TrEMBL record:
<keyword id="KW-0238">DNA-binding</keyword>
<keyword id="KW-0805">Transcription regulation</keyword>
<feature type="domain" description="HTH luxR-type">
    <location>
        <begin position="176"/>
        <end position="247"/>
    </location>
</feature>
<dbReference type="InterPro" id="IPR000792">
    <property type="entry name" value="Tscrpt_reg_LuxR_C"/>
</dbReference>
<dbReference type="InterPro" id="IPR039420">
    <property type="entry name" value="WalR-like"/>
</dbReference>
<dbReference type="Pfam" id="PF00196">
    <property type="entry name" value="GerE"/>
</dbReference>
<dbReference type="InterPro" id="IPR036388">
    <property type="entry name" value="WH-like_DNA-bd_sf"/>
</dbReference>
<keyword id="KW-0804">Transcription</keyword>
<dbReference type="InterPro" id="IPR016032">
    <property type="entry name" value="Sig_transdc_resp-reg_C-effctor"/>
</dbReference>
<protein>
    <submittedName>
        <fullName>LuxR C-terminal-related transcriptional regulator</fullName>
    </submittedName>
</protein>
């Protein structure tokens, strides 16, 4: 299991653990919980808005198109926080950028100071305020179901650590990612091995696929990166250079 998969699975494991803690604490005669399950999406938004207006640092992981979330007024509040000097960093899934509107929105936020990086890894949405309070969706596939609000210091610290790992692996949103993000995950794996100097045969053995399949992936990579055959250019080298630029190597 590679590091990306390990990080994604760890985040999912933490989310399940937090849900169990929230269910247990809901039965206790106390009013302040370390982990609270909030099923009213309007209440979640109000808490996030209030924290955004006061926060000095906000860390976010966005796994889906913003139009699928209830974020009315979020852009205005975000820009107001940036004007106050709030430090913001956001990791966004690469497939979100397939929408031209979303890509433009992300670049706008990045230029305004909400620094964005792009990743191919799978993860659950996450929002952390001042490294003290974190929010995660109760169900990553059904955001209207509400969120888990986490205050327990060691759990928040673990979530911050997972964010930092994803941030370190992600590529900057200002890099030329548009063409590279046309690639499937398997094509990106093939291109990564090409960048290591592997032949098609070696790539086939590493990925346990046939050389014919590798050749098809390579052809698709050339096509998606707009690398047409030319006597003066070596498409394999040009593809690797594009990969190295976008991966920050």
């Amino acid at each position: 299991m590679d590091e990306v998969e390990t990080s994604g699975r760890r985040l999912e494991s933490i989310a399940k653990e937090l849900a169990q803690i929230a269910a247990f604490q809901a039965a206790l005669p106390v009013t302040a919980y370390d982990v609270e399950r909030i099923e009213d999406n309007g209440a979640v938004w109000e808490l996030i808005r209030d924290l955004t207006e006061k926060a000095e640092e906000i860390l976010a992981m966005r796994a889906r198109d913003a139009r699928r979330r209830d974020e009315k007024g979020a852009k205005i509040i975000t820009f107001a926080a940036l004007e106050r000097g709030t430090i913001m960093r956001t990791v966004v899934r690469a497939d979100v950028l397939k929408s031209p509107d979303q890509a433009a929105r992300i670049r706008e936020l990045h230029a305004a100071g909400d620094l964005h990086r792009v990743t191919d890894e799978q993860f659950r949405e996450l929002l952390i305020f001042d490294r003290r309070v974190a929010f995660m969706p109760i169900d990553p596939d059904e955001l209207p179901l509400g969120a888990l609000m986490v205050r327990q210091p060691s759990m928040v610290a673990s979530l911050v650590d997972l964010f930092e790992q994803s941030w370190a692996r992600a590529r900057d949103v200002t890099t030329p990612f548009d063409r590279m993000d046309r690639l499937t995950r398997r094509e990106r794996e093939v291109l990564g091995l090409m960048a290591e100097g592997r032949s098609n045969g070696a790539i086939a053995r590493t990925l346990s696929i046939t050389e014919v399949t590798v050749a098809k992936h390579v052809a698709n990579i050339f096509c998606k990166l707009d690398l047409s055959p030319a006597e003066s250019d070596h498409r394999r080298v040009l593809a690797v250079l594009a990969y190295l630029r976008t991966s920050g190597r």
